[in-house]
Write a structure and sequence with these properties.
Blueprint: H1 5-12, H2 17-28, H3 35-41, H4 47-57
Helix pairs in contact: 1-4
Length: about 60
C-alpha cells in the first residue's frame, strides 16, 4: 500500500506533524487545495522537498535538475 504524503514528509523531517495536521485542517475547513500545495504556499515546504516526497510516494527516483 502506498504511504500517505503527510507520513512521508514527517518521516523525512521535511515538516512537523503539527504542520501536516494544520494543512489537513485547512483542507477540510474549506480550502480544497492539495496537501503539498498548501504546505508550499505557507512556506513550510519547498517545491523541491515536495517533488522528492512525491517521487518517494510513487516509488520513482528523484533527480534535481
Amino acid at each position: 500500500m502506498k504511504k500517505k504524503l503527510g507520513e512521508i514528509l514527517v518521516t523525512s523531517g521535511a515538516v512537523s506533524g503539527a504542520d501536516v495536521e494544520r494543512a489537513i485542517s485547512d483542507q477540510t475547513g474549506g480550502d480544497p487545495s492539495r496537501l503539498g500545495d498548501l504546505l508550499v504556499a505557507t512556506g513550510k515546504l519547498s517545491s523541491t522537498q515536495l517533488a522528492s516526497a512525491l517521487a518517494a510516494q510513487y516509488g520513482l527516483p528523484f533527480v534535481a535538475l
